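Look at a sample.

——
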Amino acid sequence: MLIYVGCYIAMFLTAPFIRRPATTFVFIASLFLFIAFRSETGFDWPVYTLIFREFADSFSIQKVFLYQILYNQEPGFLLTMGVFANILPSYQVAQVIFSALLFGSILSLCRAFKVTNLALVFALILSYLMLTVGFSTIRQSLAMSFFNFGLASYVNRRRWRSYLLFLLAVNFQFSALVYVISVFSGTALSRLRGGTGFVTFALMALGMVSILTLTLQILSIISPYVADKIDFYINTRQTAGPGLAGAMLFVTFLMIGTHTAAFTRDRAVQPPDIVLLRAMILILAAVCLATTFVAVIRDRASYELWVLYSLYLGTRFPQLKWLARGSAFAFGAIFSFFVVFTYPGVLAFVPYQNSLTLFLENKESSGATRQQIMFDEIDR
């Protein structure tokens, strides 16, 4: 566990002061090596490794559709895993490629929104996402990567490319549809007078429950597949009760929305891309508030919300900038450790393993053994 604590402390102490390209590269590259080359660490790797091996044994379109039913996973992800399983030597290599896509997509957003302090933005994003999207939820990571690339293209007026990337994102994780809706809703909101103000955010937060309910009902009627996914998200998976974690998240989403809406400088002369960014943050914050105690939907929406809010904090427009940055990093770190490092889930992350060090030291991974112990504890 000390390696995770050390990583967070290092990010907190160094990121605000890193400005030069060389040190920025070293900072981001170090985080990439830590995340991309993890070995059998995190919650979801056994399932993804199994799918990779089974596709390596035999691969067909029929098998993709069969696994879509068996594993309740989107066709884009399964098709990609099937192709990779037949051209790559191991799942570990695929994992490195997936991480590279996520890091590359964040860099593309930084470029699109003209963020200069890249190290700071990466530290803020990974304070919340390192142990979730970074280490475990590969499908979500890929969906976010394609969405981020698509959003960067959208901001740069490459609309058809962005539409294609948005479609890819949804085919890797259906919940990415919430992100796509936030783009077009945010575009409309950013054109309204006062559309990114606090009153608008408050009204959205109050009305989002009804809006989401109506939207989900319409989507359920349109597509049986969508209906199954919605049932999986809301009824099959456990929901988070109103405990400490839920209360922390509710307050955080409220603070993010309030800070973005009410504490912004140069409101009258902000460029359109920043107004769009703020509008998307408000929409996703309202969604997260409305689904605070529905864990799956809340978590999926909050991942991209955190990316966009971190980008916004990397620009010159937020007021109370350093207070907001410090609070965001502290919450990300506290919540990540609060959720992950509780028994028996801690066994999925401790001890941390890196494929490069395992190779150099000629050691075997203990991941399978630790996962089995964790499953046995959960099944009790």
